[in-house]
Amino acid sequence: MSIDLEDVDLSTLGAEIETEYGVMKLRFFAEKAPLTVRNFCKLAQDGYYDGLTFHRIVKDFMIQGGCPQGTGTGGPGYTIPAEFNDEPHDRGVLSMARKADPDSAGSQFFIVHAPSVPSLDGKYTAFGKLVDGFEALDSLASVETTFGPGGEKSKPVEPIHIKSVRILVVDKEGSEEGQGVEDGLNAEGASEENEE
User: Residue 60 contacts by C-beta under 8 Å, 6 or more apart in sequence?
Assistant: First the structure.
């Protein structure tokens, strides 16, 4: 069963990202970034993310995924406008990865692992935050990494897969209400970006 993203109140939606290291649950900042939330939900419901990887992991900074190529260079074949807002990039915040062009985000996203990264504030679209699963975030951020093509020590030695992304209807307190929707990560990935 799929949620009709045109008719639903986006503020009632949340998501679960399932990995081999556990499940991360989050709520969206629907009022701050409605286009971004709708785009992420649509990709998830289409199964786009299922099977993709967290291709860039920097402990005490962030984990990044959503690229179909697994390299940070792929996207869904389109981009969306930035929705920069006043949400700080604190631990557990979900934000869109992008290239130098502010309006170049597509499907790649990152989750902040550091307590706070103020250098990202107002420069990347924060569109959600973890409400549960911080242990999974810590485990993901702690995997062994090696140097990638760009010289950054951020490429996981073993691929870290996203099993699925489910979009859920949640109540005001953030608990699940009714049926979720199976979502995934599989198709074509997102836009490449550097978060610093």
Answer: 113, 114, 141
